[in-house]
Amino acid sequence: MIRRCPQETVDELYEAGLMQMMQPLRYGGSELNLDVVADVAMTLAAGCASTSWVWMNLATHSWNIGQFSEEAQDDIWGVDPRALAATGLAFPCGRAKRVSGGFRLSGRWPFGSGVDAASWLLVGAQIEGTDAPLERWMFLVPKDDFRSLDNWHSFGLAGTGSHDVEIRDVFVPEHRSVRPEILAAGRECPGARINRSPVYRLPAYSAFGFALSAVPLGAARAALDQFTAGARTRASTFSASRIAEMVPVQLRVAEAAANISFAETAYWTDLRELVALTESGEAVGDDAKLRWKRDLAFAVTLSKRAVELLLSASGGAALSTHNSLQRNFRDVYAASSHIALTWDVQAAMYGRHALGIAMEPGALI
Are 171 and 246 found together in one domain? Predict the structure, then answer.
């Protein structure tokens, strides 16, 4: 098992035009918005959630690069229009020091999904030697300056190659850096003044959850479709009666379908609202951002519940590694562990805001 998305698959996704969906037009991309990307991510997840997760990460990071300065974009796509970026966004994992013309950057970041197919890395770090308690920046770093540590061994999303990534004391010029608060707001990103599509005005931290959650929602829907198709004809090992005729199975199918239906309805309602707001040029307030983050985490929780129900109705047959249901179960659970999709984290943030308590210092929404 290679534990990553094969390069042949990455090449096929690129040749199909999928990798360039959020890349700026002036570099050969399509500048499409998140609703189109989400639809593709769900479709890919029905076949392989790991492939969908890698594609989603690499394709959406072109949107983030498109929010950087023109000079940064030229450094990347002016040299190689096919360039892709992985990420390491845990700010405490990186340290940067201001020097003449830029920064010296070091760190080790977990969960660099798709890093082996990437020629650039987008990372976050805290700034040393400053009086500001939480001064953080984001940086774009070329492949020669980072190292994939090949340590991804996971029971779910096992083929994403989400290795730790290490950078040791490299120089990053000023123009390849940006404050995360700028990306969180979206509207004032340097790239939004160059690339005119509304996609480059998306608020990065609240919008990225839509890309992430599309994968477990797509995998859960696939699990339901596959289970119902198989149960219609499968007979019980012990009684020879049809699985579909068993009332407990019928109840679990109904509940799983309801969970997925409610999750999808909330997802698409919120995503269409986000797209409409950014296309209109309106600012996105904290009320909407936190509500979306709450809904996405809850939608993924419903997807987890759905695959649990289906697995419990499948008996021993689902334990086989050849059965796609157990893989969907593992992948949905792995995706749900992402902090943007973790119910306790997002629910607490929403509840805090709803109850009139100020966000914790440094919270990026």
Answer: no
Q: Which pLDDT belongs to residue 254?
A: 98
Kindly state whether residues 341 and 233 are assigned to the same domain.
Answer: yes
Could you give the number of structural domains in the chain? 2
* pTM beyond cutoff 0.85: yes
- The answer to whether the CB of 56 falls within 8 A of the CB of 225 is no
Residues 191, 208 share a domain: no
CA within 13 Å, CB half, 55: 32
For residues 171 and 129, what is the distance between their CA atoms, to the nearest angstrom?
A: 16
Final residue before a domain boundary, out of 153, 182, 201:
201
Q: Cα(321)–Cα(161) distance, rounded to whole angstroms?
A: 20
pLDDT in tens, 246-294: 899 999 999 999 999 999 999 999 999 999 999 998 889 999 999 999 9
Pairing mode, strands 147-148 and 102-112: unpaired
Full residue range of the structural domain in which residue 136 is found? 7-201
Q: pLDDT tens, 101-146? A: 999 999 999 999 999 999 999 999 999 987 666 799 999 999 999 9
Of 154, 186, 201, which residue constitutes the final position of a domain? 201
